[in-house]
Amino acid sequence: MKLDTIAVLGGGPGGLYAARLLKRSHPEAEVTVYEQGVPDKTFGFGVGLASRTQRNLRLADEESLDGIVAAAHGHEMSMRVGDNEVRLAHGELLAIGRATLLSVLQKYAEDAGVELRFGERRSASGIDADLVVAADGISSATRTDLAEEFGPEITEGEGLYLWCGTDFALPRAIFTPVATEHGTFVAHAYPYAPDRSTFLIETDEKTWRRAGFDVSTRETPNGESDQLSLSYLQEAFSETLQGNRLIGNRTKWLRFRTIRCRSWHTRNTVLLGDAAHTAHYSIGSGTKLAMEDAIALDRAVLASGDLGEALAKYEAERRPAVEHLQAIAERSMAWWDSFPDRLAMPVEQLMIAYMTRAGKVTVDRFAESAPQVARPGLAAFAGVAIDEVPSPASVAEWILDQPLACGAHRFPRRIAPETLRNAGGTVPVEISARPWTPETADLIAVLPHATAYWLTGPDDREATLDRLDAGERIRRATGALVVADVPAGLRTVAAGAVASERVDLVAFTG
């Protein structure tokens, strides 16, 4: 397929990367990036690049990935609750300043022959090009202008968060809560340069209001930072900040917006990155998704005979991966929204709950990759010495073989006996809605009193994960014994849920 002109709307990482790849694939085409901002002014602080993302970028364009890595900052990961901290050694976690990343990608785009035009705001309808790539971000004007064709659906999370930074490098990435007189705030922070770190801080709405941040948010003009919140949080996280200040960059409290679109393309225009979809920051970044979109788009255009076929192929290939990631992200977002409810756990066990929170990592896989954290966490769960925890290959069965005492109940292992299902005091509960929806909240609110709740529902993976998450909500709300039906093929998922205290017992089906 011959393309003479390609226009990219938006000079963020996804747009610049797509422009470079498309220009390399179509050297005779005129490729232009239109960015309404100017090169040296950008929003944001650091951008994280996980190891899998790095591998994907290297396969697509090794030269530009080398440039990114050279300017990036490596780090490990940790979680601290009070005075207790655990660390995860991970040599492949990288972060890079957003401005630095843009500078690197601008250079490689221009080296490939892309024309960069800053200070120009263009619309898809106002550009005469064979292909228009709309990489114009979460507030995409293209998606809004062509809403009937793209069919966007936007939902907001319950919690609130703000992005800020500090002018020193943390020794490693850290997840840490602080309790204030108004409630709990949780920081996700990581270094991205020798003298810079990103701080993402989140809280629940009640805490946000008690602290007066509903007022400060309303009174902070657009384009400015909420200094009241920054001063408050700087004091709250003074230990983690080691006496350094928090820095804003148009920093205000927000609710995370999850964006889905019925279609990602219409005629010669295609959405890319946040314009098409978003996934909660706790499982990665919009930058990762946008750059991987660019790879898929370039691949589809190269493999197709005409543009309609190419855009349909791009969406067909990319959508399943994005939707899977969005499902994982929703679980992760809900886990973080309820994070303060788990602070009584030993931090090593809490790290197990964190790693297995979305069904992406199984408990045995985590035990293999981080035994120095997993073994103490599992020992805390079972109430045994660390040396009694077996090898990673046997961990799942070992978890399920642990005894449980709950009220008057005594069980030799974590697999529920069938006699419990029909016993007096056991109430069956069918879970048919997502666990963090108002429907599930209403269901929990009217549950009859019981000594045990037995959760049932469809046997597919997503429904099972929903059931386990709902189990944690019911368990914490009622204090009763919670059992969940789990397909036999998801045995390691069940073990992770038990070790993370999402449910007390499981019953295998199928």
Automatic annotation (TrEMBL):
Keywords: Monooxygenase, NAD, Oxidoreductase. The keyword NAD applies. GO terms for molecular function: FAD binding; monooxygenase activity. Pfam families: FAD_binding_3. It comes from the Bacteria. Residues 116-325 form the FAD-binding domain. The keyword Oxidoreductase applies. SUPFAM superfamilies: FAD/NAD(P)-binding domain. This is Anthraniloyl-CoA monooxygenase. It comes from Amycolatopsis echigonensis. The lineage of its organism: Bacteria, Bacillati, Actinomycetota, Actinomycetes, Pseudonocardiales.
